[in-house]
Amino acid sequence: MTKVAVIGASGYGGSEVLRILQTHDEVEVVYLGGNTNAGQSIGTTLGNFYDINDMTMQNLSLHEVATQCDCIITATPHEFLVKILHKEILKQCVVIDLSADFRLKNPLKYQEYYHFVHENLELLADSVYGLCELNKTAIQHAQLIANPGCYPTCSTLSIAPLLQQKIIDTKSIIIDAKSGVSGAGRSAKLDNLFCEVNENIKAYGLINHRHTAEIEQNLSNIAKHDITISFTPHLIPMNRGILITAYANLESHYASITQRDLDNIYKQFYYDKYFVRVLENGTPPQTRWVRGSNFTDVSVRLDSRNKRVIMMGAIDNLIKGAAGQAIQNLNLRFGYDENKALKNIAMFP
């Protein structure tokens, strides 16, 4: 039995972690952390836990929490964990962090994209990026796992097969992304109010969205050379879900590639990846087919007229893009079946 603490349990990501762990028969949740809700029961703070989980949220130091558990899952704001995490804590337990604090290996990127100076360089170097489908072996031995962001998860899994096979021109990658409102978190913001979001679609974070650096890091690691992309996210008036539509030119020596060839590349790349479903014949993924699940649906469509490919993906930003992937990382790290507590299919309608 693995003892787990969840810090930031009342937010969207943290509450989904707790909800999933309710069905994990190899895990005991021993601590729920929260700042503004300390002293309240989780069932009072979040009505979906009423009469199911009566644990009281607390606000102990990270060191105190580490003495109680085998794993801490932190669903906290960026720049929170980086200031308080140190090696002594990692000697006591595994930490899986849902924030961006340990995702980017180049510390200068934190100044550029997150506007803070990363001073925890030793742990940054030791952290393991937790994209389970591409980094399984390292995750199994990690003490600090940086849970990937939602856009980077979906973008990377959508593009990786063709990138690894050197089929696309890496200078031509354009990613059009759309996300539900929960991706912005639970705190009140003017841009996320109902009347601001309802019946409206808008682009945001043009040119310098925070996840640009993370996506470029992932794609560069796969291609084994530096890659820059054009990435434009959009806010969609729905609660949850991410849809990626990415475009790239074919390399000239693949001008005669067929749709069947592309499908086979994706199926072979993901043949043993339980949580990635390859839709054939260029079938466009839909967010409703993954909502509430840990699945990623990917697809590729040949645009022979323009000698391009369209690479598509869909995830639930709160599950595969956050909490579900954190549990997937926990399962890998502690030797459980990778899909334990994560087998739910999407809710429909």
From TrEMBL:
GO terms for biological process: L-arginine biosynthetic process. One of its GO terms (molecular function) is NAD binding. It is found in: Cytoplasm. The active site is at C150. It comes from the Bacteria. Pathway: Amino-acid biosynthesis; L-arginine biosynthesis; N(2)-acetyl-L-ornithine from L-glutamate: step 3/4. Pfam families: Semialdhyde_dh (PF01118), Semialdhyde_dhC_1 (PF22698). Its main location: cytoplasm. InterPro entries: AGPR, AGPR_AS, AGPR_dimerisation_dom, AGPR_type-1, NAD(P)-bd_dom_sf, Semialdehyde_DH_NAD-bd. SUPFAM superfamilies: Glyceraldehyde-3-phosphate dehydrogenase-like, C-terminal domain (SSF55347), NAD(P)-binding Rossmann-fold domains (SSF51735). Its EC number is 1.2.1.38. Belongs to the NAGSA dehydrogenase family. Type 1 subfamily. Catalyzes the NADPH-dependent reduction of N-acetyl-5-glutamyl phosphate to yield N-acetyl-L-glutamate 5-semialdehyde. HAMAP family: ArgC_type1. This is N-acetyl-gamma-glutamyl-phosphate reductase. It comes from Helicobacter didelphidarum.
